[in-house]
Amino acid sequence: MRSKTICLILLFWIFSAGFAQAVTFPIPSLELNVQTATTPEEVAVVLEIIALLTVLALAPAILILMTPFTRLVVVFHFLRQALGTQSSPPNQVIIGLALFMTFFIIQPVAKEVYEQALNPYLERKMAFDEAFDQAQKPIRKFLLLNTREADVALFVKGADMKKPETRDDLSLLVLIPAYVISELKTAFIIGFVLYIPFLVIDMVVASVLLAMGMMMLPPVMISLPFKLMLFVLVDGWHLISGSLLKSFGV
Asked: Are 55 and 34 in contact (CB under 8 A)?
């Protein structure tokens, strides 16, 4: 065992040496150091880097709570429960479908943010604070379009803040949680509507089995093929996906 380990180390060293000799382009080195800032611009760059790292750390929460992802994934979960197929489609498929539909729906907003804020900032045509304000406008517009006024009023009252005169005066700290609970309510309403036809099939099958005296046979076993057949005949995935896209104005 020890001899095999030594041979493996030698082979790795030989191939590494050969690769190093075969490389003709320079390999850059990376140095990290901490120095005292001498100008305000250097401090500003450090603060921008910290802000960028903070945004990257919060990226999963931003993706889930500030996009259509919440409504989509909750509706697909209710659909699977209503069909009674247990773990089919699997969670990976549901999350993947919700994720790519989220990218499709949010694409116009992301394009507007890039054109009005990110690209001018990268080209040094706009300061960081101005770019941040410009990036909030399309995001705020999208959130307000899908948020109920009652939910916004709830968090404005809870924040003990002055009533905003216009929608543009709303802070994202108030708007984001209001948007989330609005999305959850909408998703639960859609889930309730999805349950109704499948619930009717379950009740009819259970009544027929009870009338035939077949009380020991699980109704789910009989109703599942009928629910799948109904879902396929009405082209359920196309119908639900199209309805979800239209609910966001796509």
From this structure: no
